[in-house]
Amino acid sequence: MRKFLIYGAMLLMLASCLPEEVEIVPESPVVPSILHASVDMEDSETKTFLDGERHIVWNANDRISVFCTNRQNKEYRFQGSDGAPDGDFLFTGNTSGSTGTLSPSVVYAVYPYSSGNSILKSGTMKMTLPAEQHYRADSFGTDANTMVSAMAFVNGSIPGNLSFKNVGGFIKFRLYASNPSVRVNSITLNGNNGEPIAGEAQVTMSPGGTPEMVWNGTTSSSITLVCDTPASVGTSKKKYKEFWVAVPPIEFTRGITFTIRAGGKVITKRVSAPVNVQRNHVVPIAAVELPYVKTYTVRDREEMSLWEKVGQLLMIQDYTILGSHTFTVNSTLRQEFQNYPCGGYILKAENVQSPSQLTKFTADLHDLADYPLLTIDEEGGRVARIGLGGSGQQYAANFGEICTTNASRQAETVGKTGNSANAYASGNYIGTYLRNFGLDVNLAPVADVNSNPNNPVINNRSFGSDPILVANMVVQYLHGLQDAGVEGCLKHFPGHGDTGTDSHTGYTVSNKTWNQMLDCEIVPFRRGIENGAKMIMTAHITLPYVMPSNAVVPSTLSYFILHNKLRQELGFQGVIITDSMGMGAITKYYSRSEAAILALKAGCDILLGPANNVSEYETVYNAIYNAVLSGEIPESRIDESVDRILALKRSILAERGQLQ
């Protein structure tokens, strides 16, 4: 179960995230507007229920019939017609012998899957009714583990995968926000006393619209609701979005707690009073207001000039523009962005002073055009720009537990536990505070296998020397970040773990063949790609026994390594970002402009730190621009990278509910 962790140091800036009592709205325990029919089915048995206006008939002999008599005493019959017990069926609708549909309400019925204890297989039967009330009917099979469910809400529809196990009633709650663009990403429901949530509730819905969330997992005392597409909420207490959550019959003796991820925030709402969910019952919870979240617009590539597209490829640090680091966005930085707009910034420890300062700094950077992507190196352990206390490690007290627990996040320390759940916890912990400070991408996890104990640059930044263990750790760390709303970046491809020198200072080589690397260095990268990695960082290492004709070229500048191997052989379609272009393995052998052009030709999408000062930055920018104008770099090559970068930005914003 993926859970979201909020730690003490962040509470000062996350006042809206503090636990809050939520009133349980008084309501009759049985809602008259819901009709419920529950029967134990026998072969060829028919059960009929009557509420004065509707007849519900369940026929266990391989078909279901639903009869509805409306206020004008017209009967509508809908039933499965092929008699097949496998969940697949046709349906017909007729009105006094004539086939047809009526509006506005819609009912979908799921046909039972009749093999043992299986959850129902999807299958739908649709009918429309002029009803003005909520309507629901359930039928349990004789094994007590299968159920047919049909639901309808006024002007709404429910899809055909309404399959449940041991469902009893509903918890109904309302969400709204002052910002109409706020989107709900997930909701976790916990019993405050650890009461088990048995069964597998598979669906929730919002009356007046199609369901926007599906429960995707349970543990003994919690259940998490995740949106396939982030769900919108209402805009006021009177214009709320209402969610109905189907849960098993249960009494939460000490109440329940909702943990809501919406608009990039984590909001905890607590109900302390007992909550008793009985079959047929609806427990309503008072409306919850979500915090204001700013939204952003990212233009399409077609709306950008070539000059602006070139800028999307460059990720710089404030030092490049200002000659020194800053804690704020000043007029000089703003002016340079207007003239030479970059696609993103990388923050250093020297930009970190306090939670409020960092949050304001990132918000101001994001306000620049087209949402600059903000990245940071926050691996945990010795590579941590925030977790070590920011600038010169002098602000540790401002970040409290983030700094005091940083040492336990060292990759080597986590790897030695042998439990990948610890890697998930590490990534989720780091990702949570990065997200709340406004960062978009953590340039982690390190996917290098530390196969050379004398390696001077990777060493304890790696999870270990076993490629399988490293792969498992990398995948879980990545998922931990992503579940916190921060994207990760696997580094350093194709693997820096078996080198004897440091590419920060100069030429670095690995003498392995590609087949040898496939059995070791490539294993974590392959697994990461298979498990949703959206960004990979290159290494400036040379692979003479992999390259054609034993060419001595840093992997960052090699089309063969990045296109033939990473793109084609491993199938990676995400963003390729370089390691810092200011490292000795590049700068000792290439000019800044030459290296930038070669990296783009090789297939890199983002150039990280392409210059060390404003003069170099402008020179590199103009060099790339002119290379496209002259045809040295096809504009289509630039467009490919821009499309990937913009897609990543939109993905991050959409996940947080911040994409306008």
What does this protein look like?
It is built from 16 helices and 33 strands. The protein is α/β, with parallel strands linked by helices and 660 residues long. α1 (306-312) packs across α16 (635-656). The two termini are 30 Å apart.
Number of E-state strands: 33
Oligomer: single chain
Number of helices, where a helix is a run of at least 4 consecutive DSSP H or I residues: 16
**Backbone structural class:** alpha/beta
In terms of DSSP E residues, the strand content is 15-25%
* Rg over CA atoms: 29 Å
Q: Point out poorly predicted stretches.
A: 1-20, 24-167, 198-220
Spatial order of the strands forming the largest sheet: 1-20-19-13-16-15
Distance between the termini: 30 Å
Helix proportion = 10-25%
Layout of strands and helices, then pairs:
Layout: E1 20-21, E2 46-50, E3 54-59, E4 63-69, E5 75-80, E6 91-95, E7 98-99, E8 105-109, E9 125-129, E10 135-140, E11 147-152, E12 169-177, E13 183-191, E14 204-205, E15 214-218, E16 222-232, E17 241-247, E18 250-252, E19 256-262, E20 265-271, E21 275-277, E22 282-284, E23 288-290, H1 306-312, E24 314-316, H2 318-322, H3 331-339, E25 344-347, H4 355-366, E26 373-376, E27 378-380, E28 383-384, H5 396-399, H6 401-404, H7 411-416, H8 420-436, E29 441-442, H9 467-483, E30 490-493, H10 514-518, H11 522-530, E31 535-538, H12 559-569, E32 575-577, H13 584-587, H14 592-602, E33 607-608, H15 614-630, H16 635-656
Parallel strand pairs: 1-20, 12-22, 12-23, 24-25, 24-33, 25-26, 26-29, 30-31, 31-32
Antiparallel strand pairs: 2-3, 3-4, 4-5, 5-6, 6-7, 8-9, 8-11, 10-11, 12-17, 13-16, 13-19, 14-17, 15-16, 18-21, 19-20, 27-28
